[in-house]
User: Fold these one by one.
Assistant:
Number 1:
Amino acid sequence: MNRDKQPKRTTIYDLAELAGTSASAVSAVLNGNWKKRRIGSQLAEKITRLAEEQGYAVNMQASLLRREKSKIIGMIVPKYDNRYFGSIVETFENMARQRGLFPIVTCTRRDPELEIEAAREMLSYQVEWVVSTGATDPDRVTDLCAASGVRSLNLDLPGSKAPSVISDNFAGARELTRRVLLNHERKLGHKSPLLFIGGRGSDHNTSERVKGFLAAHAEMEITVHQHHILTCGYAPEKADDALSALAQAEGSVPMGMFVNSTISLEGVMGWIRRSGHYSTIAPTLGCFDWDPFVALLCDDIQMVRQDVPAMLSSVFDIIDNGAKTTSLIEIPPVFVTSP
Amino acid sequence: MNRDKQPKRTTIYDLAELAGTSASAVSAVLNGNWKKRRIGSQLAEKITRLAEEQGYAVNMQASLLRREKSKIIGMIVPKYDNRYFGSIVETFENMARQRGLFPIVTCTRRDPELEIEAAREMLSYQVEWVVSTGATDPDRVTDLCAASGVRSLNLDLPGSKAPSVISDNFAGARELTRRVLLNHERKLGHKSPLLFIGGRGSDHNTSERVKGFLAAHAEMEITVHQHHILTCGYAPEKADDALSALAQAEGSVPMGMFVNSTISLEGVMGWIRRSGHYSTIAPTLGCFDWDPFVALLCDDIQMVRQDVPAMLSSVFDIIDNGAKTTSLIEIPPVFVTSP
DNA sequence: CTTTCTTGCTCAATCGATGGAGCAACAATT
DNA sequence: AATTGTTGCTCCATCGATTGAGCAAGAAAG
């Protein structure tokens, strides 16, 4: 039925000609306000039918140029290589669509330059909001957006210039540490400190988690060695290298660890397996993040799952209803295994 | 320096006024063809400086409306909940950016209606290409795109109306099955067939993998029971339920399995753990897909990793150089563990 | 001193959709 | 018969960037 060779896409002008009417009538019908524009229902039906037949799709570029609001919402995200960010993106897309917004997501691989580049590109597309997820330098993104009058907010890692929604890292880490310490004591028959590994010492989440880690130790009157806080970065190899170096330096191997993310856990598990030091007794582990296979396959591990649905509800609540730029919303994470 | 309250974004007209020149001069300078347009270098510098100062960002909607090419490339993807699709998206974004294309990715949760909806939305944004990844009904997407003169291609699951890039499912599955069967024989002391679980019987990949699975059995002269091919769908619960039902019906439990994806593997592992039937001897497993934690934590498993970089190189080769609409490119997957 | 080039810019149409303003035609009211 | 209202449209400016065409001023050539 349709023209097979369509060198150009169908426009409202094409439809207007086919229907023997004007472009504005077509426009009015196709975006649903034909009653307000007093278009007759017969003409409306005819236009709708023709649009269907011709496979018409509105040219958003033209439409958005004319409109005042773009209804585009952008998100930058560090990686797609773990369940946490994966579920953030999936939930974000769903909730945006539910609100009639068009989500644009881009992955910036923890590279501050790429973050800025991506934000700039989103501004060009006239986004109405930018959500910076786990951004290395969220305030720079906020500044850039503010200069164009675009609102932004931070997710996962907080900034100081836009509202931020994050996990309650301190409380989560303290509780996680407490549980792992109890496990550990049960296993060893005596109290013993854990090793903290993964994350960047400079980022807010890691430093809060370290505080929670230390607080839990203090509450149980266990002393932690300063050099057992290894905030070596997020990449698996970094955790692996840090553990090798530590084992080398100390001549012994940690028996209990607080691992700061699943991505660091990959490195930790790789090292555990290769090191050969754990054949008689498995280490007691805790991980600030969740992965289904780890939950299924690993016995001596406690995990917390960051509450992605609650976090994104909070994000969209701010988008729908506003919030003070300085507000910091902390969402309690969920404990996956029983205490 | 900048105006703090910027009710509207800066346009080339604002810059033209500030520079005491015309909008076309500004446009020429800012998109780099000012030499062709014979704009003096002093004026060019002045405009560049002003644009910087004002935090100018081009309005893509306006720019794209005027241009002939949008440089936008769309991808639809089923889920972000596994490493395979995660790495597809990440690689896709990188390679698109390298070519100066703007990637738009959207997740359609294996829902055919959402796939079409998303494709339609992408067409509105004037995408030049649509890549359908793991689409339930790729030909419908292709038809929709073709009606607007937009090229498309299929990734992961093939279609008949656009070029398709997929894994070599038959060869991969045959080799995987062969390895698992050898493992299994070594362990049991005698030959024994495997169970096939996961995926949709109606999809091309699953049916090719079943063929490879059967071929490997045939080569080793092992008989497979027809009702041991459980193509129950991809969701973890489905695999779990199918195994429960089978165990119930047969009064016994499979000791070797070919699992069709990591997402099905989640269900399989959950069932294995809960069933209590594997306390004395662990099942021998193979998985057509890869996950780092499974590789690290599970001993008796063989995995194949689909070659995402090669697949996407192929995709962009088609985008850069074209291909016949009927072409089907099969990329050999990579074996992660040694045979 | 005229003609021809070159340089450095500006003008105005254009892309497709939108919506305020306005214009016929007819109906209803005074 | 004249006024007012209603219905069903169309006209046209507009959004911001791009680009072919063209115009002045000065330099070079004849």
Note: The radius of gyration of chain B is 26 Å.
Number 2:
Amino acid sequence: MSEDQKWLTVDEQRAWRALMAVVVLLPGALDTQLQHDSHLSNFEYGVLAMLSEAPDRTLRMSQLATLNDSSLSRLSHVARRLEERGSIVRQQCADDRRANIATLTDAGMTLVREAAPGHVARVRELIFDQLSGDQVSELEQIADAIRSNLDPEKRMPTYVN
Amino acid sequence: MSEDQKWLTVDEQRAWRALMAVVVLLPGALDTQLQHDSHLSNFEYGVLAMLSEAPDRTLRMSQLATLNDSSLSRLSHVARRLEERGSIVRQQCADDRRANIATLTDAGMTLVREAAPGHVARVRELIFDQLSGDQVSELEQIADAIRSNLDPEKRMPTYVN
DNA sequence: CCGAGTAACTTGACGCTTCAACTAAGTCCG
DNA sequence: CGGACTTAGTTGAAGCGTCAAGTTACTCGG
């Protein structure tokens, strides 16, 4: 905490503020769309989407947590709610009886399938309609550079669409 | 929700996932640093930082809310907690007695001043150490393009450092 | 100048996230 | 084997954000 520390340049400040605006506003915008159209939070959508792509629509709780950058506790609470709504079921794993595996139900699968198009449309509208092709690849490089520091193991493939 | 909708291209998907990783992980990383070093959330830091730069260290609640992209309700709750901790005080505005003005106390000012260097250092480490000068200006342009859709009035200068 | 409408907050309840236990099961090794 | 340690997950309490409702004050047309 020395006084002679390196401050941000003017350019960096502008970039920083613009990035923070996106980071703060984007999740809310996505949540609003998903909540309105499918009664799902962004996080719940992510959970269901990951399951929908997994073999047998099934994943261990711990894998599912890692994939969504979630604590096990958070996932556990959300999974209980999703189970109550009939979107997933959980059962003890036969191999390792500490483990619990979550499976997407048919109703859950239907839910994700119906939610996906609207979600993707919103993503396109918010992000890609604003960007040139060059900017899209620049964005990928920049975001990946930042991400490399935040998530060194790249454990987070994040919700696929 | 038609079936023949426009999906994302492979390039767009990669950019999208990288961006989402940043959007999900960055707030947590910043919160961790601030919480650890100054017992502040990112949002609280933003509130105090905005006040620290305002004339007389004073702003109306509604302005403060807008500047931090917050609902008045959220700000009101946070302001109560900050007031309890002695970082700010609130008092009725003389001109318009519906309004409430928040003022940063000396203790609050000290708190922000002490928190800022560590926060900026973490931002530099997470973001700018990873990027070339060209990438910084590209980032600004891209983030601004996305932001233009999320926050058309650009009401959000976001936490200055 | 007075009543309807609106603006600026605050408050309380509810839902979600986090954190700190806690349970139960697997693993390691002496 | 058996005790110590680790791993997987759940649970309950506490904290924060959101939403709807309430309060007080300003404003503006008649």
Note: Residues 41, 43, 70-71, 73-74, 77-78, 81, 96-99 of chain B lie near DNA strand D (CB under 10 Å from a C1').
Number 3:
Amino acid sequence: MASKGITGNASSRSTPLSAVQERTVGAALELFARHGVAGTSFQMIADALGVTKAAIYHQFKTKEAIVIAAAEDELARVETAIEAAENEASPALARDVLVARIVDLAVERRRMEGSLLGDPVIVSYFSHHEPFRRVMDRLYRVLMGDDAGPDGRLSAAMLTAAIGGAVMHPIATELDDEALRSQLLRLARRFLDLPT
Amino acid sequence: MASKGITGNASSRSTPLSAVQERTVGAALELFARHGVAGTSFQMIADALGVTKAAIYHQFKTKEAIVIAAAEDELARVETAIEAAENEASPALARDVLVARIVDLAVERRRMEGSLLGDPVIVSYFSHHEPFRRVMDRLYRVLMGDDAGPDGRLSAAMLTAAIGGAVMHPIATELDDEALRSQLLRLARRFLDLPT
DNA sequence: GTCTATACGCGGATAGAC
DNA sequence: GTCTATCCGCGTATAGAC
């Protein structure tokens, strides 16, 4: 669950992370999920890793750097899903696969999605982050087809927001993973006008 | 924009707020929008109001209390929208009105929605908050009809998450209010299977 | 890379006078 | 209700040894 198999050549990351850094980001991610980004301190991350704060400063110069690395880590997961979809035989199949994988991802990582996507730091960072935009572009192209107008991008944003937002919604708290997954999949497909 | 006309009898708030408290919440809300909940300190709120921290502590015993009051303020806006919808002549009309008003609300308050809905404090507070659940129930009843199965609630959650999430999505940053509004309305109606 | 030690500032919160 | 003053703790960050 921590840091294997996310990377590959998928990562549109500024600087590749060392193994130690990956561990740090993994620990941070788990803490972000429980306490929120702002609610997670260097001290907590250090404790979780069994090292001192100073040790972490060696890998990341600021807390923001960790947050961004974590966000890029999550983005890489999405990229991996997109790549899997793009390798499908037909556009229709690609779309099916992608929707399913996005839903899986969101459910599996329910706690992270919220803390990260909601964080002001991340939002502003990603809004002028080229790699992020490219990922969103690929995403919406698979989802909406090449012929999607300029509005396609917002549709994709809305769908991902819907999925990401729904899993962290208070209402979803009561549902177990399986129920949540099947419901989301059904609703997402309806949003895309696919047969349910 | 600050504190008029939101209340009425709509407010399912624990304790009604005094005029001073309303001012404080208004200022807090604006700061939350810009800096996030965690990024907003008592000091900042005090500065915005031109008073000292201690003065604020007289109105709210903890920072959490302010956050909750702010969230309830936003919730009251939703309630007002629901009430307006419920007063419509037909269920179909009610649904149309509600969708439109929810979209309006989200666009108008794009910055708040995100900071608040994403905040861990709010999420956990609302998840066992009866008034909030009642509001969501009324919401989904208007949107989905009385005959909505047990899944109706999640559908409503997903729709509101979709709208709320889309407005704070990095992609939406580039759109002006009017474009965002019309796009969201179109997509939301499609989600509900309404004629576009 | 990791440690100990230390600094600095700020945020949350309280006491008590006006 | 608002002020001044003050406490405490924690988060961020750096220096310098191992």
Note: The domain at 19-191 of chain B is CATH 1.10.357.10 (Tetracycline Repressor; domain 2).
